[in-house]
Amino acid sequence: MAKSLKKLEDLRSHRWYGVKDLRAFGHHSRTLQMGYDREDYEGKPVIAILNNWSDMMPCHFHFKQRVEEIKRGVFQAGGFPIEIPTMVLSEPMQKPTTMLYRNLLAMEVEELLRSYPCDGVVLMGGCDKTTPAMIMGATTMNIPSLFMPAGPMLNGNWHGKEIGSGSDSWKYWAELRAGNITEREWQEVEEGIARSHGHCMTMGTASTMTSIAETLGLSLPGSASIPASDSMHGRMAVACGRRIVDMVWEDLTPKDIITLKAVENAIAVAAALGGSTNSLVHIIAMAGRAGHKITLERFDEIAAAVPTLANCRPSGKYLMEDFYYAGGLPALQVRLKEILNLEEINGNGKNLGENIAGVKVYNDDVIRPLDNPVYPAGGLAVLRGNLCPDGAVIKPTAADPKFRKHTGPALVFNDYNELAAKIDDPDLDVTENTVLVLRNSGPLGGPGMPEWGMLPIPQKLLKQGIRDMVRISDARMSGTSYGTCILHVSPESFIGGALALVKTGDMIELDVAARKLNLIIDDSELAARKAAWTQPKPHYPRGYGQMFSKHVTQAHLGCDFDFLEETTEPVPEPEIH
Fold this sequence. Notes:
alpha/beta
């Protein structure tokens, strides 16, 4: 049932600006101190613009301009915009991993919105973890929210070839290690792979997550696909500013928009995109903030019935600029209209069916029809077995088909440092059939579940022309990565999961079609190894790292903090004294 339109006295900001007391004097005088007139803010909804800009954030380098465009739209619609910077999660720069800090940004977003006079918010993000973090925080706070995606960078270029961020980095790094390109050519790849601002232009985590945000209904239709440097992107930013003001008066909030069916739409779209494996962890966490419990089984059930239609790297051929010109996300959604729940509402006030009515696909090779998919079904697959009783994930579309059913001996690395030290040893006892195993790289073991899951192919095998093999870890991998990489093994090895018990030489069986991953070993031997296992020491003695270690959930539960999960007990509004 539609809500009644809000009145001025219903706004949160009215408690700051609308009352007549000494505290309100401070609110007024300090706003005037910044050079605003009373006409700028009196009687208007206050719109927070949470800006994830930094000199260490190349993906969002255009946000100084975009924030001004959002402000213009807010003013046009009769709102009062306030820009608030947030902490930065810069995927290429932050160590040990941005995933360690996703929940910290989510907490910051929630508390900024709660503690300031915000009636609605435009969330500026796009680089991998910024999208789920901001959505998680805004959903918990549950004021009208609209996500403005950063947009992908332009296609890369090297020697006349189109190259894609991440995917071609790994490709040419392997060729450099194999001795097939020179150091100077490697530097030329560096110089040509990131030609503009914007996030990765492959179908990595960034584009997957902004597409999910749009499918959930928190971004304006078509916004996720627009290249960052396209003039349409600036116009979209203005439109976000205009629309959020109307959303405030309509009281259209994230929990109105993120229904269970909207979440299921997002899972289906992630599968059709051949999207990042990271999406499982983030969708579970975002859905949880809206009160929906999504299991890995449900994720796999939906994904298994959806063909991969986006012919984009790393699962396909093209890049995001091509995807946009082919029609973008709305065009992919049109292909899926018989699968998706079309009644789900978008932040623009219309439902999905209305928003994609009349949308066309302009290139059938970039966005494939249902009868000619890139991959017939299950672009993301969830595995079970004694190695991963709580689940693991693989992207079959990015794996060599011959390895989707494989049995081979394990070669175990206890941590990433051991892997880095040994992987290029010419005497390493390894063949193409070996199963590389990396442990102590999960949420607690990493710490933070770093993107180490695309284990490098040993140099001796690269020189033989081998470019894929089965690799297993409790880590994540970049959405731009590829190969037969089994990830998110849960429970993780650091807390005694079965991955901690594997020994070099043990046989491991993978069967993607059957959704199985097993260590071929007697239960009694496995139990004996578990009894002899010793818990490693925690990484952090204090601070945020210690809080993370005590409260983060495992991968199959979304890696949120246990104390941030949805509750029926509301958090009180701040007292204004």
